[in-house]
Automatic annotation (TrEMBL):
Organism name: Rhodospira trueperi
Entry-annotated residues carrying 4-aspartylphosphate: 52
InterPro entries: CheY-like_superfamily (IPR011006), Sig_transdc_resp-reg_receiver (IPR001789)
UniProt-listed Pfam families: Response_reg (PF00072)
GO biological process, one term: phosphorelay signal transduction system
The name this protein goes by in its record: Response regulator receiver domain-containing protein
């Protein structure tokens, strides 16, 4: 299973999603701010990051740009989580470096499928490198 960094400023949402992911066998570390996310991405070495876009200090798109610009974290796949699910929002997430996008409220089976796909893609790249 995966080691997941969940970046979510809403404590109730973070707790609920973390619990659901943990029940599915994943290890979850939570960050509530962009700065905490940057620190956790470097310190915890997650397999995948679930990134809320609307964060209180540094928005999730900028956090993703910084993660992707840092050679130590650039290969960590980031899946955007947002209540804003318009085509422009998806394009902005991809432009920032997100590999996928999941709209809130979260559909758990869909998100689990996205996580699995991202991890399989990452593993294939690692094997072929």
């Amino acid at each position: 299973m995966a080691h997941i960094l969940l970046v979510e400023d809403n404590t109730d949402n973070a707790r609920a999603l973390s619990r659901l992911l943990t029940r599915r066998g994943h290890t979850v570390v939570c960050a509530e701010t962009g700065q905490q996310a940057l620190t956790a991405a470097n310190d915890d070495g997650p397999d995948v990051i679930l990134m809320d876009i609307g964060l209180p200090d540094i928005d999730g798109l900028e956090v993703t740009r910084r993660i992707k610009a840092d050679p130590a974290t650039s290969d960590i796949p980031v899946i955007a989580l947002t209540a804003h699910a318009m085509a422009d929002d998806r394009a902005a997430a991809v432009d920032a470096g997100c590999v996928d996008f999941s709209a809130k409220p979260i559909n758990l089976p869909d998100l689990l499928g996205r996580i699995q796909t991202v991890l399989e893609t990452r593993n294939r790249k690692a094997i072929s490198a």
